[in-house]
From TrEMBL:
Job of this protein: Essential component of the vacuolar proton pump (V-ATPase), a multimeric enzyme that catalyzes the translocation of protons across the membranes. Required for assembly and activity of the V-ATPase.
Keyword Cell membrane appears in the UniProt entry: no
Keyword hit for Transport: yes
GO molecular function per UniProt: ATPase binding; proton-transporting ATPase activity, rotational mechanism
Pfam families membership: V_ATPase_I
Residues in coiled coil: 96-123
Name of the protein described by the UniProt record: V-type proton ATPase subunit a
Length: 818
């Protein structure tokens, strides 16, 4: 946890690497992932850099890998996943040549097989369609030789004058083919129009689905035969067939010729089937072999491309015998970087070892916070608001506790908390198996599994304090109240309510949480309202005070000691003297006023309203108390409140003018000489740079002062959402129990068992769906807002940029998500 208090110290380093050792050295750094390289050639075009040809080679290999992967997906062949220990390292230059040759050979082989397979499949489809034409046109040509288009009458085939008559009348020609069924009717109308009805068209649907040549999808097709006379009409029909993508096939009219042709087609189909099966077996063997190595090839190509991409960031020295690079490195990882450079030089057998120099700079370093799988989720919540400035106090350390606690204040139910704990425990126990699931919504829940676990555990505690289990209370320690009324009084129906006085009916304090007797009280909502409302204000004020105090840590670290007096002191005074005093009055009222007091002015009926007291304090007003009561809770309270308001008002011009006047006085003592220029602004933390005009300083400080004064009031009221959501959650839970589950208890005998079973199912689904998921999400978002706006705005600037090291693991994970 100590690493999370603030971001790590960073160092800007220069790396000196020999060209022959550069590839191996960068590969070692990529495996360790602790250097964020800077581009020293940002003014150079990408196509003019030293290693652009190597990057292009990697792009070509990457394209081949994608092509092989697409062929695997096309054949539904699964590529085995690599484990972390099976992941190959970046290939050396000799392995690159072998890998390139292997990818080229596999791609060419798959290309040839795909082309041959497409040609064979097209031939097979055409043969099948030809067979369908020959079989389905059998009925179209019965005694066709003696049918005449002009007379539609049958002639005697034994008549010797028949051929002469047929020649005189004109021989009937035809065109046969296959067309999609959806296009046939439009095709039929078009033939009728171009021939003015002089075409006789017949069709017969092919049974089953056929593969479409254009899309490869299964469609319905039909066989057609168009009978006509004349060569000119034949050419028109063929043009229409071409326009409608209808395939025309040769079909003899004689039955014996068709039978011989069908036999020939069947033989050719059998030969094609055998060739296709052999081609498919060979393709399957090639793809299965490629699938075994493709995962390794993919990792090797990506690593190699990343290395050459980083090498393009390097700048050669004037002699050309050394490559110079720069990058940010965490100070703790400097020995690791030096070790990686030495190992890279040793692998490449370089005569001169690579080395590293730490250089000084005025640039703001990147922000890097080490996290583990537990703290990573909380750190992501903070980074979503804004990346912390370099070495700024990190709110994630405290968010690990405050976030689930404030969530639990709104989600205080032990039953619902058990559901959260069970879900989070499942994600944690099965995290190795579930880590491979990349579905977006599930990834969000899986990444926050430890947040959900803590939210559930804290909700168990607050549910115990609220004594709330699915809207029901538990009598663990025995109630501290007893009934002082006799039987006749209790059974008297004319008495609507019975009042239990604390000094009479309460004989002990319930050890932990709320007394279960409040579950039966008619004023339960009123009591819980006041209790949770005050509780939310108390938590909110302490949370904001803690946030203001954290700004002192930043001021001390950045050596802005004057800001402690000019900003922190007036801010914390303003907050404590107004709202801290209001919290004090709540505790004082709880302790002082009770039913057992002998002084009437300290009885519960005389307890003043905290809100009215606070309003009168701000407006310097007064309110007449009831008879026997006092306006104030203790002697001298009026004077103390007046002093507090005056000091709080003084804090406003203190915050408004203190820092600008200090900056102006400081500049007057440090005027630059005429031949010197003012120093560059330190930047990164607050305003008041040496080059900033004083008018800008006054304006910015005025904005900050107005924002703080107004936000102190609005942020305090904003914490009332803790009370509102807690009350809403408890009431929704009670409504679901009374209106759904309890309806199953009104039946008797075996019918009641069935009713309870059904109502329990409905109640459990609604409980998980509404109270756990929707209400849980609502409480989560409200808690997030309280941290981002009310807490972090008091000290967190968030003006930094993230440390993005060159890391093979991160590169592969990003590519996998894409």
């Amino acid at each position: 946890m100590g690493d999370m208090f603030r971001s790590e110290k960073m160092a800007l380093c220069q790396l000196y690497v020999q060209p022959e050792a550069a590839y191996a050295s960068i590969a070692e750094l990529g495996e360790r992932g602790c250097v964020q390289f800077r581009d020293l050639n940002d003014q150079v075009n990408s196509f003019q850099r030293k290693y652009v040809n190597e990057v292009r080679r990697c792009d070509e290999m990457e394209r081949r890998v994608r092509y092989i992967e697409s062929q695997l997906r096309k054949d539904d062949i699964k590529m085995p996943q690599l484990n972390a220990d099976q992941e190959p390292s970046a290939p050396n230059p000799r392995e690159i040549i072998d890998l390139e040759a292997q990818l080229e050979k596999t791609e060419n082989e798959l290309h040839d097989m795909s082309d041959n397979s497409a040609s064979l499949n097209a031939n097979f489809r055409h043969m099948q369609e030809l067979k369908s034409v020959l079989e389905n046109t059998e009925g179209f040509f019965s005694n066709q030789e003696v049918i005449n288009l002009d007379s539609n009458r049958q002639m005697d085939p034994e008549d010797p004058k028949a051929p002469q008559a047929a020649a005189q009348r004109g021989q009937l020609a035809f065109v046969a083919g296959v067309i999609k069924l959806e296009r046939f009717f439009s095709f039929e109308r078009m033939l009728w129009r171009i021939s003015r009805g002089n075409i006789f068209l017949r069709r017969n649907d092919i049974s089953g689905l056929c593969e479409d040549d254009e899309t490869g999808r299964k469609v319905l097709k039909t066989v057609f035969v168009a009978f006509f006379q004349g060569e000119q009409l034949k050419q028109r029909i063929k043009k229409v067939c071409t326009g409608y993508h209808a395939d025309v096939y040769p079909c003899p009219s004689a039955a014996n010729e068709r039978a011989d042709m069908i036999k020939d087609v069947n033989m050719r189909l059998e030969d094609l089937k055998m060739v296709l099966n052999q081609s498919a077996d060979h393709r399957s063997r090639v793809l299965s072999t490629a699938a075994k190595h493709l995962a390794r090839w993919t990792v090797m190509v990506k690593k190699m491309k990343a290395i050459y991409h980083i090498l393009n960031y390097f700048n050669p020295d004037v002699t050309g015998k050394c490559l110079i690079g720069e990058g940010w490195v965490p100070v703790r990882d400097l020995p690791t970087v030096q070790q990686a450079l030495s190992h890279g030089s040793k692998i490449s057998e370089s005569s001169i070892p690579a080395f590293m120099n730490v250089i000084s700079t005025n640039e703001q370093p990147p922000t890097f916070t080490r996290t583990n799988k537990f703290t990573n989720g909380f750190q992501n919540l903070i980074d979503s608001y804004g990346m912390a400035s370099y070495r700024e106090v990190n709110p994630a350390l405290y968010t690990c506790i405050t976030f689930p606690f404030l969530f639990a204040v709104m989600f205080g139910d032990m039953g619902h908390a058990v559901v959260l704990v069970a879900f989070a425990a499942f994600l944690i126990i099965k995290e190795r198996q579930l880590a491979s699931i990349k579905e977006e919504i599930f990834t969000i829940f899986f990444g926050g599994r430890y947040i959900i676990l803590l939210m559930g555990i804290f909700s168990l505690y607050t549910g115990l304090v609220y004594n709330d289990l699915f809207s029901k209370s538990m009598n663990i320690f025995g109630s501290g109240w007893h009934n002082q009324y006799n039987t006749s009084t209790v059974t008297d129906h004319s008495i609507a309510y019975l009042t239990l006085r604390p000094n009479i009916s309460n004989f002990k304090t319930y050890p932990l949480g709320l007394d279960p007797v409040w579950q039966l009280a008619d004023n339960k909502i009123i009591f819980l309202n006041t209790f949770k409302m005050k509780l939310s204000i108390i938590f909110g004020v302490f949370h904001m005070i803690f946030g203001v105090c954290m700004s002192v840590v930043n001021f001390v670290h950045y050596k802005k000691y004057a800001s402690i007096i000019l900003e922190f002191v007036p801010q914390v005074l303003f907050l404590l003297l107004l709202f801290g005093y209001m919290v004090f009055m709540m505790f004082f009222k709880w302790v002082t006023y009770n039913d057992s007091s002998l002084d009437q002015s300290l009885s519960p009926g005389c307890a003043p309203s905290i809100l009215i007291l606070f309003i009168n304090m701000m407006l310097m007003g007064h309110q007449e108390p009831l008879d026997g009561c006092k306006e104030y809770m203790f002697e001298g309270q009026d004077t103390i409140q007046t002093i507090f308001v005056i000091v709080a008002v003084i804090c406003i011009p203190w915050m408004l003018l203190g820092k600008p006047l200090y900056i102006k006085a400081k500049r007057g003592k440090q005027l630059p000489a005429p031949n010197q220029t003012a120093a560059a602004p330190s930047g990164g933390h607050g305003h008041g740079g040496d080059n900033e005009p004083m008018s800008e300083v006054y304006i910015q400080q005025a904005i900050h002062t107005i924002e703080y004064v107004l936000s102190t009031i609005s942020h305090t009221a904003s914490y009332l959402r803790l009370w509102a959501l807690s009350l809403a959650h408890a009431q929704l839970s009670e409504v679901l129990w009374d209106m759904v589950f309890s309806n199953g208890f009104i039946f008797s005998s075996y019918v009641g068992c069935i009713a309870v079973f059904l109502t329990f199912g409905a109640w459990s689904v609604l409980t998980v769906g509404i109270l756990v998921l929707i209400e849980g999400l609502s409480a989560f978002l409200h808690t997030l807002r309280l941290h981002w706006v009310e807490f972090m705005s008091k000290f967190y600037e968030g003006a930094g940029y993230a440390f993005a090291p060159f890391c093979f693991k991160q590169i592969l994970e990003d590519d996998g998500e894409n």
